[in-house]
Amino acid sequence: MVPLPKRKLSKGRRDRRRAHDALKAANLVQCSNCGELRLPHTVCPNCGYYQGREVISMEKEAKK
């Protein structure tokens, strides 16, 4: 036998349980080199810099 709820869940209780499931906007920060918005702790997809150093040379990437 499958257990079933004894009472109907109220809309308020149901919605409180689902409240944290909503999608949250991404936390974007400005690149220190070019000022473009990027995700924190990642290389800037626009200029290839991370923490003030060039990690990916974008000229080589553009030629491919």
UniProtKB/TrEMBL annotation:
Keywords: Ribonucleoprotein, Ribosomal protein. GO terms for cellular component: ribosome. InterPro entries: Ribosomal_bL32, Ribosomal_bL32_bact, Ribosomal_zn-bd. Residues 1-21 are annotated as: Disordered. Residues 1-17 have a biased composition (Basic residues). Pfam families: Ribosomal_L32p (PF01783). Belongs to the bacterial ribosomal protein bL32 family. This is Large ribosomal subunit protein bL32. It comes from Thermanaerothrix solaris.
